[in-house]
Write a structure and sequence with these properties.
By secondary structure, this protein is mostly helical. It is about 65% helix and about 0% strand. Helix 1 packs across helix 2, helix 2 packs antiparallel against helix 3 and helix 6 packs antiparallel against helix 7. The longest helix has 17 residues. The chain starts with 5 loop residues before the first helix and ends with a helix. The relative contact order is 0.13. Bound molecules: fe (ii) ion.
Length: about 190
Amino acid sequence: MRKISNAARFLFLRLQKHWKYTAKHSQRVAEIAQMFGRSKEEKNLFYLCGLFHDIGKLKIPTGLLQKKEQLNKNEIEMLKLHTLYGRDILYKQGFNNKVINSAYQHHERCNGNGYPDQITEIPYIVRVIAVADIYTALTEDRPYRPALSQQEASKILLNYAQNGEIDMEITKHLLGYQHDILISIKP
Ligand SMILES: [Fe+2]
């Protein structure tokens, strides 16, 4: 893990206690996101954006986070609120705007099919987090399915990019980094 402030460490510990799978997932997203930074400062910032993109899940009951069955409409709406909760938590704690924004917008999609605001002009770091988030989720065990192979995950990711959901350039970069990711991230 990169060096982070005490406030950031404390917040991350809260996430680990609440739902360790989201914490583990966030750490993997952070490891990928920092590779897109062009300077040491940017790498640190992108790392934080990854680490806290799902921090709003602190306010989502673990019963919902671990549910194996398909979620109903209400439950899906409840889960979506983690983007708003994340923004509020990070704002209150005085985090950088890019970190706040990544939590709020990481489920937005380039073609406007995302949430919460269905925007299409998405900042670069948020697009990085979105690609890293999806790729990481696909290659992890989930309560409702086992992890996909790297090959399967790459195919799906490229498909999303071709459909205009996520940024193609970032997707290509990430798949290019795949070799480094494999080495740097323990399963
Ligand atoms: Fe999320």
